[in-house]
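INTERNAL AUDIT FORM
Audit reference: QA-55
Scope: verify that the stored structure record matches its stored sequence.
Auditor: D.O.
Record contents follow.
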Amino acid sequence: MDKDEIGALVTTAKNSDKLFEEINIAVALQDAEFVHVMHFKGETRPCVSFFYAIHAWHGEIVNKEPDKHDHVKWFDLDKLPGNLIPRHRKALEYISKKIYYSEEDW
């Protein structure tokens, strides 16, 4: 299975609805490119995170869930905040190297 096939499996309308629910944007499926999947050990069970490059969206990005997130902010990749979840930092490294699958924290 190649990266486009993996992306097609998980890029659904439900994911697009989640973006609107959390940060007020709508993304057309053709504007979401699958870039990485990470399999990792969660606190109580195995977990999987999918990462996408979003090439275009409609709407203004706002934090619609302030009880879950402090804020939404853009960062240069070489100036990421120190409190970034280590797994997410590692995913960004993999994405920059075009590595589409990883396993972490096992």
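Auditor finding: record pair retrieved intact. Confidence is low (pLDDT under 50) at residues 5-9.
Action required: none
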